[in-house]
């Protein structure tokens, strides 16, 4: 209830400020405030008011678990409701590693940022914006599952000593590369198309 007490006034103030810049045609502050504020409020809502983060964590754990078995890596869902996995070492089956999918590995931050950027991107028509948003969110979820699979594979085949480097280096590098492609699809490519069209008109 405490979070709701300050969340509602914050949303109202943010919405009024975004509407003001939109009415004024001040597109840069409209986009910056809308995208950044929308992302922050979405994260807060998903963590404090709704079970959004938990749902993403559980969905990620289930997806990683299913694909791991297809790849021949044995995993178990440690807690079906908490987004936690047990990875059983492949070369040494006696080694079990418990992985907890927290806010960093859930993809919530990236999903919220992408949502804010696409929703408040003024150059895209609303209908196309919705299609791009749905596709980009789906691709981001898949990219995060791939990141987790890299970590799971490293731990399964290399042992627990590989956990830190797989999480900090390998997983992030893979996700960063995939995220660049997703942002190109959702933001950069539409921007270049708009700029190109305006240059042709000029």
From TrEMBL:
Annotated compartments: Cell membrane
Keywords (A to Z) from UniProt: Cell membrane, Hydrolase, Membrane, Protease, Transmembrane, Transmembrane helix
InterPro entries: Exo/Archaeosortase_dom, Exosortase
Top-rank lineage group of the source organism: Bacteria
TM ranges: 27-47, 101-124, 131-159, 165-186
Bilayer topology term: Multi-pass membrane protein
Pfam families per the UniProt record, alphabetical: Exosortase_EpsH
NCBIfam families noted in UniProt: exo_archaeo
UniProt-recorded name of the protein: Archaeosortase/exosortase family protein
Taxon lineage: Bacteria, Bacillati, Chloroflexota, Tepidiformia, Tepidiformales
Main location: membrane
């Amino acid at each position: 209830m405490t979070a709701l007490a300050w969340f509602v006034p914050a949303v109202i103030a943010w919405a009024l400020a975004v509407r003001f810049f939109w009415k004024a045609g001040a597109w840069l502050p409209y986009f910056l405030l809308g995208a950044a504020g929308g992302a922050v409020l979405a994260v807060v809502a998903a963590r404090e008011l709704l079970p959004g983060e938990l749902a993403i964590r559980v969905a990620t754990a289930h997806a990683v678990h299913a694909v791991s078995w297809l790849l021949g890596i044995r995993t178990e869902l440690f807690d079906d409701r908490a987004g936690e996995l047990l990875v059983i070492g492949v070369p040494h089956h006696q080694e079990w590693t418990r992985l907890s999918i927290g806010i960093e590995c859930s993809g919530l931050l990236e999903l919220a940022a992408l949502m804010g950027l696409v929703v408040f991107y003024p150059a895209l028509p609303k209908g196309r914006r919705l299609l791009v948003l749905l596709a980009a969110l789906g691709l981001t979820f898949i990219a995060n599952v791939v990141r987790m699979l890299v970590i799971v594979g490293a731990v399964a085949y290399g042992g627990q000593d590989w956990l830190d480097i797989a999480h900090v280096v390998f997983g992030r590098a893979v996700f960063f590369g995939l995220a660049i492609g997703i942002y190109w699809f959702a933001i950069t490519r539409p921007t270049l198309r708009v700029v190109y069209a305006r240059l042709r008109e000029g």
